[in-house]
Amino acid sequence: MKRVHSGLVLILALGLVWMGCDSDDGGSKDNGVTQDVPQQDPGGTTDTGVDTTPVEKVTFKAQVQDNLSKQPMAGAQVTVMDNDTGEATAMTTTADAEGMVTFELEKGKLYGFRSVLVDCKDTYVWNVSLELPEGEEYETIWLLSEMGFVSAAALAGFTPDPTKSIIAGALYWVNDAGAEEYVSCGTIKTDPEAEYRYFSTTTGYPAPLATVQTTGAGKAEGRYVAGNVPAGHVELSGYNKDGSVKWASEMLWTKADSVAISNLYVDRTQFTTNPSPATCD
Predict the structure, then answer these.
(1) Average pLDDT for residues 120-149, to the nearest whole number?
(2) Which of 83, 177, 179, 241 shows a CA-CA span of 20 to 30 A to 136?
(3) Rounded to an integer, what distance in angstroms lies between the CA atom of residue 113 and that of residue 128?
(4) Residue range 157-281, CATH number
């Protein structure tokens, strides 16, 4: 998986309209209310108090892929989500034959995306940055099929609540070369609470922490599923196995009857090397 850069704010240009009232008697009418008059500098420029600094836009490209097969998903409808409010913006487009979408977005912002397609579960990604790793030309936006959703829930051993959400992802540490490394033997927690499952290296299936078989340093053990997460603004955190050390944390939005693909990235300033232990015991 590419980093969800670990993901979109639509800037609505608000026009400031000044509405004045002309006096009926041709003069000024004193209604007892003092109004501030825009100040004019000596050069003749009126200061309206509105920031007119041009917004710098960049072209953002992404490919919609099936979260399991990694194949492009042509025809998926992708909507830019406000990363701060969790609400949909008016920016929507349809993925082309190669699963590609393009948006003009404000530089320096984080964004969210919703992907919708027939026979797929509405899938969200959040906290997406426009700054791609060197050498990469586009981001990846994930989409999970209904079959994949049902299978994942069944394998994880929980019954999906249609009023809640599922979060799926992995724990990563990014090395000096910019490559993602799985962080194994970790645990997750959401606020509010949910049902947590972890993938076993030996079986390849998700299971509760008490029963999952772990061997250490395996990529599967860096992957997780949080089931039946209440809809709303959720904090997702990653810890070591006993939960005594927090490795990573992020905020995201969860929606009813949907999936959020959300990876966690270990803080490199606090952990200068991959914190994976030699063994999960």
Answers:
(1) 91
(2) 83
(3) 8
(4) 2.60.40.1120
